[in-house]
Amino acid sequence: MFDYKLLSALAAVVEQAGFERGAQVLGLSQSAISQRIKLLEARIGQPVLVRSTPPTPTDIGRRLLNHVQQVRLLERDLQSQVPALDEEGMPERLRIALNADSLATWWAEAVSGFCAEQHLLLDLVVEDQTVSLKRMRAGEVAACICASERPVAGARSLLLGAMRYRALASPAFIARHFPEGVRADQLARTPALVFGPDDFLQHRYLASLGVDGGFEHHLCPSSEGFIRLTEAGLGWGLVPELQVRDQLEKGVLVELLPDKPIDVPLYWHHWRSGGQLLGLLTDHLAKACGQWLVSYEQ
């Protein structure tokens, strides 16, 4: 039988990215949570954590984390059927990984009513849409939004739609770098803005225009900061259409190549044995996301 106090210690250390913060969440001392991890490893006969900064789960640690995530959700279902089991009456907390652009645009409006109705708290992990699936694979989250259709073992994926991005720059930037009009081959020779080292959207966009090779760019790991830098004329960037409608109407930002947007599919990944709450949230997103995301053909 599993000792869920030990498994909770493992989950807290991974989710809180350290022994000290994990101990605080559980109301334990750092020494006590460390002892629980050691006891878990002694019972299993192998390490469950790599003692790095932050600590990362081993292969067996990931399997245990996947189990803990699903047990938490199934326990909530049981508590709703047998209220006497819910001694604290605390709201459920769901850990979800999603990309910064979704968080900055449609996500809050899409889930606010659902969270209020279900008495649900969210623990959001921000990752680029191309890599957030690794959080599912590591057992750190119950669900994620990413650009990949293929789910990890034990999970399902659902296409929510696509975010439409447009190549934008400030009028001053365009006047400085494209005085005779914008040409696709010139984009690689002008400063660009890229969200982070895992963001290859600009590369894909240039490749779709027949432009290969590298390009000079700033790195800006902030959705709001990305817009501010674009407005200030530091570079051109691919920006979610949802985020800059006012700037486009006012002429603060201008599209470089009209009618050449790029759509990024967004898939909702969730554990198959995730319980009723995760199923309800999945159904809710499937119905609601059409208000903000464009249709996408797989």
UniProtKB/TrEMBL annotation:
<keyword id="KW-0804">Transcription</keyword>
<keyword id="KW-0238">DNA-binding</keyword>
<comment type="subunit">
    <text>Homodimer.</text>
</comment>
<feature type="domain" description="HTH lysR-type">
    <location>
        <begin position="2"/>
        <end position="58"/>
    </location>
</feature>
<dbReference type="InterPro" id="IPR023490">
    <property type="entry name" value="ArgP_gammaproteobact"/>
</dbReference>
<dbReference type="InterPro" id="IPR036390">
    <property type="entry name" value="WH_DNA-bd_sf"/>
</dbReference>
<comment type="function">
    <text>Controls the transcription of genes involved in arginine and lysine metabolism.</text>
</comment>
<dbReference type="InterPro" id="IPR017685">
    <property type="entry name" value="ArgP"/>
</dbReference>
<dbReference type="InterPro" id="IPR036388">
    <property type="entry name" value="WH-like_DNA-bd_sf"/>
</dbReference>
<keyword id="KW-0805">Transcription regulation</keyword>
<dbReference type="InterPro" id="IPR050176">
    <property type="entry name" value="LTTR"/>
</dbReference>
<dbReference type="InterPro" id="IPR000847">
    <property type="entry name" value="LysR_HTH_N"/>
</dbReference>
<comment type="similarity">
    <text>Belongs to the LysR transcriptional regulatory family.</text>
</comment>
<dbReference type="GO" id="GO:0003700">
    <property type="term" value="F:DNA-binding transcription factor activity"/>
</dbReference>
<dbReference type="GO" id="GO:0003677">
    <property type="term" value="F:DNA binding"/>
</dbReference>
<dbReference type="Pfam" id="PF03466">
    <property type="entry name" value="LysR_substrate"/>
</dbReference>
<dbReference type="Pfam" id="PF00126">
    <property type="entry name" value="HTH_1"/>
</dbReference>
<protein>
    <recommendedName>
        <fullName>HTH-type transcriptional regulator ArgP</fullName>
    </recommendedName>
</protein>
<dbReference type="InterPro" id="IPR005119">
    <property type="entry name" value="LysR_subst-bd"/>
</dbReference>
